[in-house]
């Protein structure tokens, strides 16, 4: 019989970094930034009127320069998925207009992983604003188990 154990990652981080001094960040054009895509979903407070506009707003919230945006890739039997199921699952909603309750929309993995992430990929691939200047930025979207280069 297997038992899942939830760990407190913040205690591990505190232990690993207790004797480490903060260092200044290098310039943005010398860094590759990784964004937690699902966290971006929860940072949205004022929702635009359409899902396309929501996806473009998510893009504007990502770091500038070279960026990897990774959305969740939790297996159905993972500790994370089991924790989410224990908290409750919202109804599956069909993407149309703006959801009345954004947090409830995000509680359903089908809404988030299958619909929102797919729309985000499409919008970022076709409607994303181009960067100014001569340099090209790297934008990688990790969705489910696939990696997409959506560079500008």
Molecular structure report:
This protein is α/β, with parallel strands linked by helices and 152 residues long. The protein contains six helices and four strands; from the N terminus they run H-E-H-H-E-H-H-H-E-E. A hairpin with a 2-residue loop joins strand 3 and strand 4 (146-149).
Helix content: 25-40%
Amount of beta strand = 5-15%
Please trace the helix and strand order, writing H or E for each element: HEHHEHHHEE
Spatial ordering of strands, largest sheet: 1-2-3-4
Largest sheet: 4 strands, mixed
List the helices and strands and how they pair.
Layout: H1 9-16, E1 32-36, H2 37-43, H3 51-61, E2 66-70, H4 79-87, H5 102-106, H6 109-126, E3 139-143, E4 146-149
Parallel strand pairs: 1-2, 2-3
Antiparallel strand pairs: 3-4
Helix pairs in contact: 3-6
